[in-house]
C-alpha cells in the first residue's frame, strides 16, 4: 500500500513539475532541444508511474475492472 502511495505521489509531483515548466517557459530560454528532451522525459516518467500505481492498486483489489482507453490496456 505504501508503494502505491509513493508512486501516486511521485506521479502527481512530476505532473505538477511538468505543468510549472510548461507554463513558465523556463527551459525555452536556454535551448529548445534541451527543453523538448526534458518535457518528454518528465511526461513519460509521470505516465509510467501513474500506470504503475493504477495497475498495482487494481491488483490489490482483484474484483475491480479497469479500462484505460487511450493506452488500450484492460486489466481485470
List keywords for this structure.
single chain; about 80 residues; mainly alpha; two-stranded antiparallel ribbon; transmembrane helix; membrane
Question: Any chance you could write out the topology, listing elements then pairs?
Answer:
Elements: H1 2-24, H2 32-60, E1 66-68, E2 73-75
Antiparallel strand pairs: 1-2
Helix pairs in contact: 1-2
Report on this model:
The chain has 76 residues and is mainly alpha-helical. It has one domain (2-75). It has a two-stranded antiparallel sheet. The protein has two helices and two strands. The radius of gyration is 15 Å and the shape is elongated. The chain has helices at residues 2-24, 32-60, and strands spanning 66-68, 73-75.
**Strand residue content:** 5-15%
Biggest sheet layout: 2 strands, antiparallel
Structural class: mainly alpha
The geometry reads as: elongated
Helix content: 55-70%
How many helical stretches?
Answer: 2
- Compressed to H and E, one letter per element, the order equals HHEE
- What's the number of domains? 1
Q: Let me know the number of strands.
A: 2
Q: Note poorly predicted spans.
A: 64-69, 71-76
Mean pLDDT: 69
Strand order of the largest sheet: 1-2
Amino acid at each position: 500500500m505504501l508503494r502505491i502511495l509513493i508512486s501516486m505521489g511521485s506521479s502527481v509531483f512530476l505532473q505538477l513539475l511538468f505543468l510549472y515548466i510548461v507554463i513558465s517557459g523556463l527551459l525555452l530560454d536556454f535551448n529548445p532541444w534541451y527543453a523538448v528532451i526534458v518535457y518528454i522525459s518528465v511526461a513519460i516518467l509521470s505516465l509510467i508511474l501513474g500506470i504503475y500505481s493504477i495497475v498495482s492498486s487494481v491488483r490489490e483489489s482483484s474484483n475491480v475492472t479497469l479500462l484505460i482507453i487511450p493506452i488500450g490496456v484492460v486489466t481485470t
